[in-house]
Design brief:
CATH superfamily of the largest domain in chain B: Single-stranded right-handed beta-helix, Pectin lyase-like
Number of strands of chain B: 39
CATH architecture of the largest domain in chain B: 3 Solenoid
Oligomer: heterodimer
Largest sheet of chain A: 7 strands, antiparallel
Distance between the termini of chain B: 71 Å
CATH architecture of one domain in chain A: Sandwich
Shape of chain A: rod-shaped
Number of strands of chain A: 10
Strand content of chain A: 35-45%
CATH superfamily of one domain in chain A: Galactose-binding domain-like
Radius of gyration of chain B: 26 Å
Number of helices of chain A: 1
Radius of gyration of chain A: 38 Å
CATH topology of one domain in chain A: Jelly Rolls
CATH class of the largest domain in chain B: Mainly Beta
Number of domains of chain B: 2
């Protein structure tokens, strides 16, 4: 064999061996997966913000009348409630907790323990935008003996709007009473009467 | 001769090389070049990542949230949160193929060394390779996964793998409320009206509540998180419920995460025709029930997750009758109370002829249940509870009875009795309850079942246990379990190959 041919043969053999080796290595080690990663970034912030679309319109705050609110000291009975929204939450002095009755009519009765001459009653719902505006129809009755009740006013249609404080204040001629009963007949925002606070003033 | 030998050698080598390439080409042609494609979402820059774990997906680092969990097994009733601790949580989208997952435990003091790891649901058969402080495995399909290290539930990794979102809402539509990525505070809450869609972008963390009343055709979508961290525990006063539907119909909720609620998490009351899909809940504070359906009808929750510090799934009657509830393809972890509960309140609204019927729990894996019963009906009012089915349930760890659970540590508990949650003086009934293909892998040495009617008139009638397996052993009679039976009739235990 000519030397040149020998060299060519040896080179060819070497190339073939190396190729085969690479091929086997590739077969054994190559991950047959193409990995693609997309990354979605978040614009930097210094602190938590309120999205501009959710910045609430300016909300008015309900200011109760001056004087002592007689309701927290009154003995309360309820016709019923839904879930954990007990009647006592309507007179606990916290405007973010509320009572919700279990249907219509639903009522709260306050025994003032002694006679008071009352002139104002405030109905409140939580002053939070999430509540949305709603209308409730309420019959207010008073009692001199805690047993017999008679209407204080005709049925009242009360409009609540968190933007205006989510509260309604009724003012009327002075009336002596030892008990008050509030019967909720309708509510455009729930399936029972609702009140976060009922406030009674002389 | 020499020439010939050389020629043969060269031909052999060429043939070998050609064969290798041909084999390789054939293999490639058969399998095709596979693609693993994922989408990772950065977190708001205001948040700090977990200090205990890092996550790499296909080699790229993904943000790991540090979320509150509660390994305490005692509800002291005073809204004590001293037992709350943290655990890592992350989420990403799996677009195509199988994602290569690498979790690195970075807190030497918490886990001085990593010896083992498991990925739940165990039924997926995911094998984990341990290398140093790394746990490596592949995720081939969307779902919710729990990675537990060194055989302990402590600091388990919560990994939520989403499918890519389809048909995103139109951002310019005035009925679409769109929350961009980032940390946001909307303390007044978001009240949705009929026809509206709320979209929480991936990478959004929103401190708010979302509610709707008397609405229809309402959607909540996205990959973002509703977080209650700005509020103290509700302490019986101010519950800020992340998602709350009341008197709604045609509701769709998909993809979001509910984290660190100050009370219960997902609540629906008197709501019907609803579908909840791929919603993930982690709660750690008192009364942190997961999915609570009160007096709902035609309501399905599926492909979702709940790790909760109170009942994980709950069906109750607070008003009208409950009918047609389905929970399916779910992963649960119950740190406190029951995993899948019907009751206790079965007639809170004190309706006439109150009834809870047609409730299905199907294809559900309970990764851990540490406290009270896994499957339970507690009829504490006067309702009729009927046609309740548990089907294809895997309880990976039924380590019940911890903390203040006392004797209420049954795997299955059907009880008719008054309780602190009762609203009626008379008692109800339970009938037609089926348990099919129930598997318990690990837990208490002896698993218990309790079927406790109230009296002959208010009894449990018709309970079927079909293909119940405890620690690999088929249950063929009630004697195979520690059973307490009273005022229960037509109880049948079946095993079918």
């Amino acid at each position: 064999m000519k030397p040149l041919l020998k060299i060519v043969c040896v080179l060819l053999a070497a190339v073939t061996l190396v190729s085969a080796g690479f091929c086997i290595y590739y077969m054994l080690h190559q991950r047959d997966v193409e990995e693609i990663v997309h990354r979605m970034t978040v614009p930097p912030q210094q602190s938590a913000e309120t999205p501009k679309e959710f910045i609430p319109e300016e909300m008015q705050t309900f200011v109760p009348p001056e004087g002592e609110n007689l309701a927290p000291q009154a003995k309360l009975t309820e016709s019923g409630h839904t879930d954990v929204y007990f009647g006592a939450k309507a007179t606990d002095g916290r405007n973010t907790t509320y009572w919700e009755g279990d249907g219509f009519p639903s009522s709260l009765t306050l025994d003032l323990q002694e006679e008071h001459t009352i002139t104002k009653i405030a109905f409140c719902l939580p002053p939070l935008r999430v509540w949305g505006a709603r209308t409730q129809t309420v019959l207010i009755e008073t009692s001199a003996d805690g047993e017999t009740y008679s209407p204080l006013l005709p049925e009242q249609t009360l409009s609540f709007d968190p933007l205006t404080g989510n509260a309604v204040l009724l003012t009327f001629d002075p009336l002596a009473a030892t008990g008050l009963r509030f019967t909720f007949l309708s509510n455009t925002g729930a399936a029972g009467g609702q009140a976060s606070e009922i406030m009674i003033f002389e | 001769m020499k020439k010939m030998l050389w020629l043969i050698l060269i031909l052999l080598l060429l043939a070998a090389g050609t064969a290798c390439f041909a084999l390789r080409a054939r293999q490639s042609a058969q399998s095709g070049k596979t693609v693993s494609e994922v989408t990772l979402y950065d977190a708001p820059s205001t948040l700090s990542p977990s200090k205990t774990a890092k996550l790499f997906v296909n080699g790229a680092e993904s943000f790991v949230y540090s979320v509150f969990v509660n390994p305490g097994r005692e509800n002291k009733g005073n809204y004590d949160v001293s037992s709350v601790s943290r655990a890592p949580m992350a989420y990403f989208d799996l677009v195509a193929g199988a994602a290569r997952i690498d979790i690195e435990l970075t807190d030497q003091s918490s886990f001085p060394e990593l010896t083992s790891a498991t990925v739940s649901p165990l039924g997926k058969g995911i094998e984990v390779q341990i290398e140093g402080r790394h746990a490596r495995f592949s995720i081939a399909e969307p779902g919710q996964y729990i990675v537990q290290f060194n055989g302990t539930a402590r600091e388990a990794f919560h990994l939520f793998v989403n499918a890519p979102e389809e048909a995103l809402p139109d951002k310019t539509n005035p009925n679409v409320l769109w929350i961009e990525p980032g940390e946001w505070t909307i303390p007044d809450g978001i009240q949705l009206k009929s026809g509206q869609t709320l979209y929480l972008s991936p990478g959004a963390v929103v401190h708010t509540t979302v509610s709707a009343q008397f609405g229809s055709n309402i959607k909540i979508r996205g990959r973002g998180m509703i977080d209650g961290g700005i509020w103290e525990s509700w302490k019986g006063q101010d519950a800020h419920i992340p998602i709350d539907f009341r008197y709604c119909s045609d509701v769709y909720v998909e993809g979001v995460i509910l984290n660190n609620s100050n009370a219960w998490c997902f609540n629906a009351f008197e709501t019907e025709h609803a579908l909840v899909e791929n919603v993930k809940i982690i709660s750690a504070r008192p009364n942190g029930d997961g999915f609570t359906l009160q007096s709902c009808r035609d309501f399905t929750v599926q492909n979702s997750f709940a790790r909760t510090w109170d009942d994980s799934l709950v069906v109750k009657n607070y008003g009208q009758n409950t009918e047609g509830i389905t929970f399916r393809h779910m992963i649960l972890w119950t740190d406190l109370a029951q995993s899948m509960e019907v009751g206790y309140e079965t007639n809170k609204g004190q309706q006439e002829n109150s009834k809870i019927s047609d409730v299905l729990f199907q294809d559900i894996t309970v990764v851990n249940a540490f406290h009270k019963p896994v499957m339970s009906i507690h009829n504490a009012d006067d309702a009729l509870v009927e046609h309740i089915v548990w089907e294809t349930i895997v309880v990976e760890n039924a380590d019940l009875g911890n903390g203040d659970a006392k004797d209420n540590k049954q795997l299955i508990d059907l009880t008719i009795a008054g309780s602190g949650w009762s609203s009626t003086k008379t008692r109800g009934r339970i009938q037609d309850v089926q348990f099919k293909d129930i598997t318990v892998l690990q837990g208490l040495e002896h698993q218990e079942i309790r079927l406790m009617g109230f009296d002959e008139t208010h009894a449990i009638d018709g309970v079927t246990l079909q293909n119940l397996t405890v620690y690999g052993t088929p249950v063929t009679s009630l004697e195979d379990l520690q059973a307490t039976i009273q005022f229960a009739r037509n109880v049948e235990v079946r095993w079918e190959e």
